[in-house]
Design brief:
CATH superfamily of the largest domain: P-loop containing nucleotide triphosphate hydrolases
CATH class of the largest domain: Alpha Beta
Oligomer: single chain
Order of helices and strands: EEEHEEEHHHHEHEHEEHHEEEEEEEE
Shape: globular
Number of helices: 9
Number of strands: 18
CATH architecture of the largest domain: 3-Layer(aba) Sandwich
Helix content: 25-40%
Strand content: 25-35%
Radius of gyration: 23 Å
Distance between the termini: 35 Å
Strand order of the largest sheet: 6-7-8-3-9-10
Length: 321
């Protein structure tokens, strides 16, 4: 089991990771989620042994790893930019760690073939990595990280450089690969969909601190505070008599609603319009409106005065600031 306790990382006096605690159980997929600059990658590098902590510990099965160099931790790390060797072919990239381990050539070749089959690149052994697409390079990097059979696999924004369509497809494939490998996995991302699709548990970080650590479903259903709620796309409002986190899908626009609003603007989002409204108290809220056959004519126009109500039984109570 991975155990991070009271970890602190500083750069030139700036605290990037601020007394963070985190665990990952055997076979668990844990995602560290948060905005850019929140300390996620610094945390990953410290666990890998690439960043010396200013305080706290990183341990595996209760053994402090402070004196264990990166190459002896038996952790695999996949960087956002893939960091492939451009002068080597696919097989040489995937097999690099195996050569460093001194694995016999025939055994290493069999292992490379097995992993390329696993990531959907069977027969790519002799391909030059510079001739691969972004998605193919991502799979090569994943196969290389898996090759030494690490006890912990860490991925830093693995899909961040890919276009949306390819990202959505590879999220599904990554989930299937993770399930087959039965390895402890620590994933860093800023993408909500990626986190919820892949993780058993999600840790939300902001400004170096952990804001919430919960199973993926529980995190989505019950954000712990206003930051987590807003980061996940909730509205934070006091318009309904209490401080609540409310999903845009759980608000309705109707002229006879209890809260008067003015429509600020609207944006088409494929299957719905995202309508921003302003209450008389100055709160700006987002409402998801699914148009009927009238299309845009079914949604109120910017500048119009109307009202909203909240679907009964929805809304998550939040602590007061």
């Amino acid at each position: 089991m991975l155990s991070v306790t009271d970890l602190v990382i500083r750069y030139d006096g700036h605290v990037a990771v601020d007394h963070v605690a985190l665990t990952a159980q055997p076979g668990e997929v844990v995602c560290v989620l948060g905005p850019s600059g929140g300390g996620k990658s610094s945390l990953l590098r410290a666990i890998a042994g690439l960043e010396p902590p200013a305080g706290g510990t990183v341990a595996w099965d209760g053994v402090d790893l402070a004196s264990t160099p990166p190459h002896r931790r038996h952790f695999g790390l996949m960087f956002q930019d893939h960091a492939l060797f451009p002068h080597r072919d696919v097989a040489a990239n995937v097999g690099f760690g195996l050569r460093m381990q001194g694995m016999p050539t025939a055994e290493a070749q069999a292992r490379v073939k097995e992993l390329l089959d696993l990531v959907g690149l069977a027969g790519f052994e002799r391909r030059a990595v510079r001739d691969l697409s972004g998605g193919e390079q991502q799979r090569v990097a994943l196969a290389r990280a898996l090759a030494p059979d690490p006890r912990l696999l860490m991925l830093d924004e693995p899909l961040g450089a890919l276009d949306r369509v390819l990202r959505e497809r590879l999220v599904t494939e990554l989930g299937a690969i993770f399930a087959r490998r039965e390895r402890t996995i620590l994933l860093v991302t800023h993408d909500h969909e990626e986190a919820f699709a892949l993780a058993d548990r999600v840790v939300v970080m902001h400004k170096g601190r952990v804001e919430q650590d919960a199973p993926a479903v529980a995190l989505w259903q019950t954000p712990a505070n206003a930051f987590v709620a807003e980061f996940l796309g909730y509205n934070v409002t006091e318009a309904f008599g209490a401080r609540l986190a409310v999903r845009p899908d759980d608000l309705r626009i109707t002229p006879d609603g209890p809260v008067a609003v003015t429509v600020v603007d609207r944006t088409f989002r494929r299957d719905h319009f995202r309508v921003r409204v302003r209450t008389d108290a100055g709160e700006v809220l987002e409402v998801a409106v699914r148009p009927g056959l009238g299309g845009a004519s079914d949604t109120p126009e910017p500048g119009s005065v109307t009202a909203i109500w909240i679907v009964p039984g929805t809304g998550v109570p939040l602590p007061t600031p």
